[in-house]
Amino acid sequence: MDNQTISPRQMSAAAVNRRMGRGRLEPILFNTFNAIFMTLLVIVTLYPFLNTIVVSFNAGNDTIRGGLYLWPREFTLQNYKAVFVSGTIYNAFLISVARTVLSTLLNIFLTSMLAYTLSRREYVFRKPITFIFVLTMYFNAGLIPGYFLMKDLNLINSFWVYVLPSMISAFNLIVIRTYIGTIPESLVESARIDGAGDFKIFWRIIFPLCKPVLATIALFVAVGAWNSWFDAFLFTSSRQELSTMQYELMKLLSSSMNANSNPAVAAGAGMTQDAAASMVTPLSIRAAVTVVASVPILLVYPFMQKYFVVGLNVGSVKE
Questions:
Q1: What pLDDT does residue 12 have?
Q2: CA angle at residue 67 from 64 to 70, to 5 degrees?
Q3: Where does this polypeptide localize (predicted)?
């Protein structure tokens, strides 16, 4: 029988078909692996918070046994009743909201204005002033000098001790100034030709174009202001009406850690102290405190998520 010969054209066609087959298979394998990996990553990331929610809704005496995963075994609201039993928590919530909103607005406006000023090449003092701000990121006067500074400024036991010290941030200044450096200088020059001053250029041109990085900075400042409790302990602990939500939650958690139960918990829940001790434990209180402190930020974050990655990436890299 005659041997069949394969022409070079047929050989090249077969090689192309094999490459095309691999080309179609590789995306399928990659997408499958990527989907599995990302699903596992989401589960690993979300599980600790989901488990904390489960513990917060589970009876304290049952939580001690362990073995809680995705659903409470003995559902109860006593942990949240223990958190909200004190009337001071509501006033503290309003104080925390007020300081978070004011700190965020002032920090964004003043830091971005300063960043615009230090981004101007014609400003002769921009380098030494920038150096001074960067220096504060590495060296701190300390706790005691800081306290005496607040005392000399008459900010002790004042609401403004939460707001004024955080109006300018060196890190945020560097991020915003770098982002402003990516804005074409021709926009500023054309505005100057039309007779616009520095403030008008900043407010009408620079500030709107900085929306992504400002949203990122706003999230940083808001989370920091909302989670802060040490300044309330240090500067306003003698005035209950100026206590923040985080400070009140910290005191509740500390009291629950130092005793099996809190008398106020039993009174608020309508039970005897022994009955409350069987329902509320430091572990369950800690879970409820974590959920209460996290929910407001979780409600705000989705509205800023679309700006977060863009603002942080562009504001930290300049080509």
A1: 61
A2: 115
A3: Cell membrane
